[in-house]
Amino acid sequence: MSGGVEIHSVPKVSAPAQSNGKLNKFSGQLTQNKMRGGAQAMLYAVGLTEEDMNKPQIGISPIWWEGNPCNSHLLELAQKVKEGCSQEGMVGLIFSTIGVSDAITMGTDGMRYSLPSRDLIADSIEAVTLAQHYDANISIPGCDKNMPGCLMAAARHNRPTIIVYGGTIQPGVRHVDCPALGYKKGDDMTAVDAFESYGAFAVGKISEEERFDVVRHSCPGPGACGGMFTANTMSSALEVLGMSLPFSSSIPAVYPEKAQECFRAAQYLKKLLELDIKPKDILTRNSFLNAITIVNVLGGSTNAVLHLLAMARAADVELAIDDFQVVADRTPFICDLRFVSYLSVIDISPYMSFTSPSGHYVMEDLHKAGGIPALVKYLLKNTDLIDGTQLTVTGKTLAENYEDVPELDFETQNVVRRLETPIKKTGHLTILRGNLAPGTAVAKLTGKEGDRFEGTAKVFDNLDDFYPALEKGEITEGTVVIFRYQGPRGAPGMPEMLGPTGALMGAGLGGKTALITDGRFSGASRGFIIGHVVPEALNGGPIALVNDGDKIVIDSTSREINWFVDEEEQARRRKVWEVSGKDKIREPRGILYKYARDVAPANVGAYTD
């Protein structure tokens, strides 16, 4: 990390109010008030001393549990944060919150809980921080939905906050040769290879020994999935937003520098307390535009659209889904990082694909090349895509944070391309509209799909019916596969659906069919793959009225999805749908019921508060 913690003047950002010097102004309401003897007794019981009662209390919230490598090490990192707080004369108090592993739940009913976990994380950190009168917070997220959950909580409680990313996993290493797929012993691999291994095994491409080698060795230890998947996308966004310390997004979980970052976070947090710099002083419209820019530069996950919209709303920042298209249109895609092309082992199906993921490098490689600091410095020096005047948790601006970091060396690294030779001249995130998605839809379109896809619909209200239809030959070239009732309210939970894309590839239909859903697709997929359709089917969107055989046209030039059924027929179908009962929430109780009851549409972030 560069620089110290001294505070510089910040152009274009309103100067934060100076603190009155009392760093425990919230916790002091409990520890300094004789009327709060009961609270004080409880604090003494957990080990606080009389001296501690005069110190600021810092909530430390790791998203920790043992059952996921993205999160299994976060309690250890939280202990480092706690040590740092003690060193700075503050009391760090650890409380954990829940998480859901996207990789473990992928392709199961458990995936419906992934997106709701984001809001549950936000709710729980907000609740503990405000209920316990903590003066500030250091959150330690690891997996996909953790990062936006922590940021949303920070914006809600608006106490000085630093978010320390738990770090990326290192690549695994093959222990045996795999000649059929062109790999040899010693080659790197990631969790994506584990997902894809069954597809290759099922069609006889690889042996059981080769398959198990991938499963056993692709994830060597703690850290989030190593490619430019959702976790690394959102950690990069947080760093550019200014809510994480420099290099936080790229330092691998097991590097000593990650533990050092955790220890040093308290030093920066104390300065935020002294100057009363709060999340809403840092989170501005321009900082969110910076984050959208870096997502496009990196080739990040489409999930960033949902998350950044919800995060901006939590911070009372004006941000709309069309801002993503504006930024994408002016931003080149220049980072050659691995992202999902097809995850091919979601179901035991003879059609599972074993297509390799796109991109060549992992987040550790980007870190070795200079990380987000070197990338942002390159953009600041050569473009006007990034606003370097935005305030960050160091107390300095984004540009000031990166003044002294080494520049990208294009002679020794290939992770980041020169602006003159981008992977794609504009961003990959695409916002579409049309009479099938009047409230928008989201896709990753690279230009390789062509400008237009015209086909006939094949409709599925659930995924169980898809595979039998594929096996019967009911899905052919020119089919537009419609998956509906997969939205935030419909599923409920808006799960990612990766099995069908792999199945179509394995059946030789990749690029020859299109897929449209009110759910989500993760990563990039060959051909026209469109998700986040709004209004969703459960809310009576046009996607609920589509029948098999309807003509659908996708036009990437005009960014439209249109459905060719006359208005009279649409009205007739709507009357039938309105008495079908398909507008009812599927879950009778529990978190998914509450989520479906409260959740907003995907095009505004699928928030629940």
From TrEMBL:
Residues 1-25 are annotated as: Disordered. Its EC number is 4.2.1.9. Transmembrane segments: none annotated. GO terms for molecular function: 2 iron, 2 sulfur cluster binding; dihydroxy-acid dehydratase activity; metal ion binding. It comes from the Eukaryota. Gene3D superfamilies: IlvD/EDD C-terminal domain-like. Pfam families: ILV_EDD_C (PF24877), ILVD_EDD_N (PF00920). InterPro entries: DHAD_IlvD/Edd, Dihydro-acid_dehy_C, DihydroxyA_deHydtase, DiOHA_6PGluconate_deHydtase_CS, ILV_EDD_C, ILV_EDD_N, IlvD/EDD_N. Belongs to the IlvD/Edd family. This is dihydroxy-acid dehydratase.
